[in-house]
Specification:
Largest sheet: 5 strands, parallel
Helix content: 40-55%
Oligomer: single chain
Structural class: alpha/beta
Shape: elongated
Radius of gyration: 19 Å
Order of helices and strands: EHEHEHEHHEHHH
Strand order of the largest sheet: 2-1-3-4-5
Strand content: 5-15%
């Protein structure tokens, strides 16, 4: 867990502990006097105890260095980010909190995409991502199979997969036949 906010670190650590989710390292780097998010990503990329990196970020000082460090880290383990201060009121709050100058959110979106960082929209999504990455092995590739007993939720999941850059391929007749034997009421 990398965070610019000490209280955020305490809050998520308490909740993760209450839910029995393990955390290898917590770094609250605050105002970045001597260490910043890029330094932390470089360290955690090589840390064997860290399976995934969660990042609460208000601002980045050196964008190019951040993208390079994040890209190297993502090659070894997933990096999930919650960017706060996306809009004017939040940016003002970030400035008064750590002196962070948030910059344009669109630049962060592009940087995350370029580095391969998984962006989440809010605190609950960050916490959920931590739980998932802590509980399940990483998979290779971008293909997803959706099995559901309701069409509406399946459509919603397919849309979410597409937005996340995942691929929902068509199944062969043979695969559908095998699945129907296991799941008699099956919508594919």
């Amino acid at each position: 867990m990398l965070t610019q906010s000490g209280s955020f670190a305490v809050m998520i650590m308490n909740e993760m502990a209450n839910e029995s989710s393990g955390v290898a390292r917590v770094v609250s780097y605050g105002n970045k006097v001597g260490v910043d998010e890029s330094d932390c990503l470089e360290f955690l990329a090589g840390d064997e105890a860290t399976k995934a990196v969660a990042l609460y970020i208000e601002s980045v000082g050196n964008g190019r260095r951040f993208i390079a460090a994040a890209s190297r880290c993502v090659k070894k383990k997933p990096v999930v980010a919650l960017k706060v201060g996306k809009r004017e009121p939040g940016a003002r709050a970030a400035s008064s909190h750590t002196g962070a100058v948030s910059g344009r959110y669109e630049a962060y979106e592009a940087a995350f995409r370029k580095a391969g960082i998984i962006e989440v929209a809010n605190y609950e999504e960050l916490k959920d991502a931590c739980k998932v990455l802590n509980s399940y092995p990483l998979v290779k590739g971008k293909r997803v199979l959706i099995i559901t007993d309701g069409g509406g939720i399946g459509i919603s999941i397919a849309d979410a997969c597409e937005e996340a850059g995942l691929r929902v391929p068509d199944l062969s007749r043979e695969s559908v036949s095998k699945l129907r034997k296991k799941f008699p009421v099956l919508l594919l």
